Amino acid sequence: MPTRVKVVLRKGDKEIATSALLNTGFTSDQLDVLLPKKLAEVIGLWPPPEGSRIESLDTAGGEVMAYTIPNALRLTVDAGDRRSKEVTCNVVVSLHEKEVLLSDAVIEELGIHIISPRKGIWRFKDDVKDRKSVECEEWR
Predict the structure, then answer these.
(1) Could you state, in order of their start, the residue ranges of all structural domains in the chain?
(2) Does residue 41 sit in helix, strand or coil?
(3) Inter-CA distances, 80 with 84, 92, 129, Å
(4) CB under 8 Å to 62, separation ≥6 — which residues?
(5) What are the distances in angstroms from CA 16 to CA 10, 40, 42, 84?
(6) Residues linked to residue 32 through DSSP beta bridges, in sequence order
(7) Element (H, E) at 37
(8) Residue 60 pLDDT grade (very low, low, confident, very high; cuts 50, 70, 90)
């Protein structure tokens, strides 16, 4: 089971809780989170707002075009008994992906350590409590 966490996404007065895949293969120097187009619509980031840019991204499936929206939302991890700090993220809107993906930079900034990627076990870096992956929520 891949490792997923429950995240709370905030844009203005809109708030959405959903699962997010911890994707260390999604490498970035900035705090980037990938949202499926359907979720971007629900939270108010599709169609792309002014200030967004279209970029070519290298993916495991080849090169794809995607919109990037700088500093588009705030994100925190909700582990049930505690929450991570809140970070402001750039949003990459995907026309192909069906779930939220957190980049390596976001994972690190939130203080998440993946303990067992195959079993879906993780913890906060300042905690000793092992936590189980949440179920995948797809946005179609």
Answers:
(1) 4-131
(2) helix
(3) 11, 27, 12
(4) none
(5) 7, 11, 9, 16
(6) 90
(7) helix 37-43
(8) confident
In angstroms, the CA 17 to CA 11 distance is 12
Q: Two tokens at 100?
A: 């939220």
The predicted structure's pLDDT at residue 125: 97
Token couple for 66: 């995607």
Tokens of 67: 């919109």
Residue among 55, 36, 122 at smallest CA distance from 84: 122
pLDDT of 115 higher than 80: yes
- Integer Cα distance of 15 and 6 in angstroms: 13
Tally of CA atoms within 13 A in the half-sphere of 109 that contains its CB: 19
CATH architecture of 4-131: Beta Barrel (2.40)
- This prediction has a pTM of 0.96
Exposed/middle/buried for 65, CB within 10 Å: 0-12, 13-18, 19+? exposed
Bridge partners, residue 15, by sequence: 10
Report pLDDT for 52: 97
